[in-house]
Amino acid sequence: AAMAGQVDVIIGLLPKLFLLVLLFIPSDLFSAWVRGLYLRRANSLIKGRYIDRVFQKNISEFQNQHLALYLSNITHDMNTVEQRYFLSLYEAMRRAFSALGGMVILVNVNWLVALLALVPSAIVSFFAVRSGRGLEKHEGERSDFLKDYTIYVRQVLSAFRIIKNNALEGKIEADFLTKSQGVQDKKFQLDKAETRVLFRNNLFFSIMIAVLLVAAMLTVRSGLVTAGGVVLVING
């Protein structure tokens, strides 16, 4: 109607459009509530299972590992799991539902277009999964650094009286700075690796979008779909 210049039709559709916009507000609020509930339940579950596994050990098994290791696991590592796994899984599920709705729109436009849309979607998904695997090594090394760092800090705090009585503050400070620098360097390497992965993904995605736009123009010129259908495809 907009491309045909039918202003009256557009004015008649405005109340429905405003109603749809208003419906997005409770929808977004519900999505945020589900996200918070999912993260809370997931974190409670994984930490509860970890504590259960710790208390299943006998005394000798528990003492064989440093107490700071457990602290590192339940703080640094759990936070990494939340950021790298739980949030990624939630985002993947959200995008899957969005893609399902988009496929319904595409099928209504043209089933052939919906079929062709599966190809770039599969390529992008495969490329994203492959790109993320390069971060596993850096994550493992950073986890080891944080574990050693937590153990070191606990040992220093436990030996506070000995350090003060023997005037070892200078040596402890130098060691602390060295270990802190090691943790920061490893985080910097991880950030660089993430930036490279993000750049490759964005570049590949931009190229894919450009190809799809060219394909959309060709389908309009061939009469396979209308310009309005292309708009629906883009929104889907």
Descriptive keywords:
mainly alpha, 236 residues, ABC transporter transmembrane region fold, 2 domains, single chain
Number of strands: 0
Helix content: over 70%
Report the uncertain regions: none
The CATH first-level class of the largest domain comes to: Mainly Alpha
Order of helices and strands: HHHHHHHH
CATH topology name of the largest domain: ABC transporter transmembrane region fold
Termini gap: 19 Å
Measured by DSSP, the beta-strand proportion falls in under 5%
Supply the helix-strand structural class.
Answer: mainly alpha
What is the CATH superfamily label of the largest domain?
Answer: ABC transporter type 1, transmembrane domain
- In one word, what is the shape? elongated
**Overall pLDDT metric:** 72
User: Using only CA atoms, what is the Rg?
Assistant: 27 Å
CATH architecture of the largest domain: Up-down Bundle
Number of domains: 2
Biggest sheet, in brief?
Answer: none
How large is the count of helical segments? 8
